């Protein structure tokens, strides 16, 4: 990849567009509003609180990432998006019950001013939800054009020069790519023909890329990783990334599995189950939507452990993932893992994890980081798939000839080395002098 000759400064306002303004979207927006007023801390955000080492360890140069690369400031963010429901951001956040009234009421006026635009909705792709605030068009190209007009109007109304989009909506049903996804020409003809293989998220991604708005997919469904969309991203000169925010149980897997492999401890089985009661849990209660999530979750261990290289350790591993909708739990998800491992001479051991997490609290800082890093990539003219952002995703999209890197620690090195490269600093490696980070 050619090094950026120049990165445009982050001047003016940055629009962040969210397809989906439910629990994750409103938690993200509210958190940004609170943080920029100094009413709360943006914990979990690498762009706001993370550091990066430059040069040797003896150089003692470790600036904040936001002071090292030219990122947009929280004060310069403008929020908008689309949703199936009419609720403004305040009412949607109240309904989601993630944040307390104490937090929400401090920024009530700002949240109430953020109203969702009518959504693109095909009920066959999200079977457990109904659409109330939806666009009237039925032809998929007309819907894409309507989304493009939304983007243009949002930019004009808010005096914006640039925007990025991050999908924060529900998981769509599992679909394999078809002929319509093979090229941009085929996809555009599919839009005109309202091809049934084209999903709402694909309509949003197409419209955003046509408007030179970078698009990050926070869900596991097929959206922006197929050839037609990558072709469009390259043609439009904008970045794409995805897919599926790496938050609770999978975050734990990408932390623990690299350690087990590093110590050459074998795994006979890894059983994972979740209970959650938010809208995401309701949607995933549908088997077709769960299939999208299951594929995303199951692929993580395969690429970390590489059983084809370590057959004695991982070749016969049994891996099972379950998600159970349990309304009383709300957004406070519980992820439980039982891991049967073995060590020296094959003697068995067990690891058990019970992660009582908050789904939207873990996802919100990822939305912020992705928005700011995608904007940075856009200003650096880094178009197409942004694999260096795999740190944030369960199923990172890559070039067709590459397998995804899921080891969290390798992903962090790739991300930070990309930032160093962008700014003309030497990458940190284990070679030469004391350079390992």
Describe this structure in words.
- This protein is an alpha/beta fold.
- It folds into two domains: 14-245 and 360-422, NAD(P)-binding Rossmann-like Domain (Rossmann fold); 249-356, Dihydrodipicolinate Reductase, domain 2 (2-Layer Sandwich).
- It is 39% helix and 16% strand.
- α1 packs across α4.
- Mean pLDDT is 94; it is low at 433-437.
Short description:
The chain has 437 residues and is α/β, with parallel strands linked by helices. Helices cover 39% and strands 16% of the residues.
Task: Write the SSE topology.
Layout: E1 14-19, H1 23-36, H2 46-49, H3 65-68, E2 77-83, H4 89-96, H5 101-106, H6 108-112, E3 117-118, H7 140-158, E4 162-167, H8 184-192, H9 200-210, E5 214-217, H10 227-236, E6 239-242, H11 249-262, E7 266-276, H12 279-284, H13 287-305, H14 311-314, E8 318-325, E9 334-342, E10 348-356, H15 359-379, E11 384-385, H16 408-422
Parallel strand pairs: 1-2, 1-4, 2-3, 4-5, 5-6, 6-11, 7-8
Antiparallel strand pairs: 7-9, 9-10
Domains (count): 2
CATH fold naming of the largest domain: Rossmann fold
> What is the molecular shape?
globular
How many angstroms does the end-to-end distance come to?
23 Å
> How big a fraction of the residues is strand?
15-25%
Mean pLDDT: 94
Q: What is the helix fraction of residues, given as a range?
A: 25-40%
Which architecture of the largest domain does the CATH hierarchy give at level 2?
A: 3-Layer(aba) Sandwich
Let me know the largest β-sheet. 7 strands, parallel
Q: How many helices does DSSP assign? A: 16
Strand tally is 11
Name the structural class. alpha/beta
CA-atom Rg in angstroms: 21 Å
Low-confidence stretches: 433-437
CATH superfamily of the largest domain: NAD(P)-binding Rossmann-like Domain
Q: Going across the major beta sheet, what is the strand order?
A: 3-2-1-4-5-6-11
**Any idea of the CATH class of the largest domain?**
Alpha Beta
